[in-house]
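Practice problem: predict the structure.
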Amino acid sequence: MMSEFPVVFQSKGQWLNGIIHTGAGDTHQGVLIVVGGPQTRVGSNRQFVLLARALMAAGYHVMRFDYQGMGDSEGSEANFLDAEQDIEAAINTFKSNCPLVNDVALWGLCDAASAILLHQFCRQSPQINLLILLNPWVRTEQLQAETRVKNYYWNKILSKSFWQRLFKLDVNVFTAIKELIQSLIVMRGAGKASIKRESGVVFLKENYVHYMQLGLKAFSGKVCFIFSGNDITADEFKQLIGKDSSWNQLVYRSEKIVLNEVPVANHTFASVEWRQRVIDITLEQLSHVRCKASASKDNCVF
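Answer:
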């Protein structure tokens, strides 16, 4: 029987709140939805509620929760750099409340996807068999400048209207040129941060992208990236994996990683069509790992 019920659990001395959705049947696969941004477990446009119920209807067990300082959970406002222990506590709570669950997929949008990779850097748990990462947040000052130049300013310079406005001495055009020059300076001036890998790593804005890469590299299960077709956060991640050789080799040459894009979709996939496409991709990936874990693979259809 399908059901939904609330759970309360502790992480770092604070009480956190979540909702568990139990699917009908005897599946051993669970999905933990990690919340990102200034979001709660409901999600933009109720996305996480609708996703959880769709997965539950397909027979999967799902948990969504608010980490510290968000929604109904205690604590001062936290961010994705501090969420690793909350994610681990949620996994343990999920499994203790759903004894059938042996394997857990982690699902996250934006900086929740980043938090998931940071969690994987800290803990390589065999119980995590799938990561579903949507529009991962990798913003740095340099990468933001590069993305603006490539996807915004370059298109403007190639447009006929830009030159027409320039010859008319349009003030807005000169402002755009000034911003372009500033972005080019940032691109040339920013170097790679010097990072030492040591015990007790503290995730900072200056180093978190590096540790995301290490977390992705350390993870041995399946990874599914889902990108929006019309989103600067997705563009920044694609810019990173396109220009950085270590990211490029890790993402494009790994058999464990698959890439998907929902054309024209905005950052939160805020339409019925886009949301359904995300649900379909998620179910497809869950089916793959479920069949892989099954003793009888003859029944698997890919």
